[in-house]
Amino acid sequence: TQYQYIRSNNNVLLNVSFDEDKINQLFKDSDLAIWGRLRPQVMLWLVEEDGFSRKIISSTSDSLLPSIIDNFSQLRGLPVVMPIMDLTDLTSLTLTDVWGRFSQPVAQASARYLAEAVVVIRVSNSSLVATKIDEENCPLCQNHSLVVDWSLMTDAQSEHAQIFSKPYTGDNVDTLLTTVLSDITDIIYQQYALSTTNNNEFEIDVANISSLADLIAVSDFLAELSAVQAVQLISVKGTNRRFKLSLIGSQQALLASLKLSEQLNRYIDPLAAPEGNDQIPMFNWGKK
Fold it and tell me: Which residues, 6 or more positions from 223, have their beta carbon under 8 angstroms from its beta carbon?
């Protein structure tokens, strides 16, 4: 690891560079899960309720909230995109759709952003805040000026099942949003991170490999995946190649991460029987 201090605009910044392979090995030695390079893009719909007024916060809104989200995104390395709220967004769904966390219209409106996960966060200083009656029924409830909650679709492109949070109460929106985003990231991390305690082999077929250059590119792509320890070509048939992969973690974690790739795209025959555990998955090589 190398580091240096850089002075910029009267601020002192720390610039750190590190050896990825060695860092990953430290994780393996400590039996810690690895957060690989392929990470899901998260579409974030943020609604702010101020008294009787509600509005969807866009990426260019005159608000401090987008900058809080952007800072968290960079800190945790999670790609987060917010709506631009142009004419397409405005005609795709309503404020009620987002506030009500209706999964189908929200997922459909999010499709243009090519996000794998969709989050709706509600920030309120009125309707979600506990009333006096609520406080009387809950003596331990504290009186706070803000409430934040969220819902999450982890596979918004094919399923619309949602996870709903409990309310988060407090008086500082920066602290509340950071806590909420951290909890959401932990859930996504559990789905895509690679457990270093599981080691197994997995075979995949890759089609559309028509040259030696393609074969080298596919082999290099697979070898560079954080989930893969070793790659072995085991059979050739036409433009199809079968590879045996030595994995870190589970097959499910690898397949989940490959959904995020633009170069290796899984092919599922709509007329074929449902895939079993013994079937070898097929992928096509090339840009989507």
Answer: 230, 231
Q: What is the pLDDT of residues 165-193, one digit of tens each?
A: 999 999 999 999 999 999 999 888 877 76
Among 129, 160, 192, the domain boundary falls at: 192
The alpha carbon torsion through 193, 197, 200, 205 (nearest 10 deg) reads 10
Give the DSSP H/E element, type plus range, for residue 255: helix 251-258
Give the Cα separation of 170 and 149 in Å (integer): 12
Give the CATH number of the domain where residue 84 resides: 3.40.50
Query: Which residues fall within 8 angstroms of residue 226, CB to CB, at 6 or more apart?
Result: 24, 34, 36, 37, 38, 194, 248, 257
Domain that holds residue 134: 42-192
Total residues belonging to the chain: 288
CA dist 177 and 83 (Å) reads 17
Q: What is the pLDDT of residues 35-85, one digit of tens each?
A: 777 678 899 999 999 999 999 999 999 889 999 999 999 988 888 999 999
Strand pairing category for 42-50 and 80-81: parallel
Count up the domains in the chain and report the number: 2
Query: In this structure, are 226 and 108 located in the same domain?
Result: no
In whole angstroms, what is the distance from residue 162 CA to residue 187 CA? 12
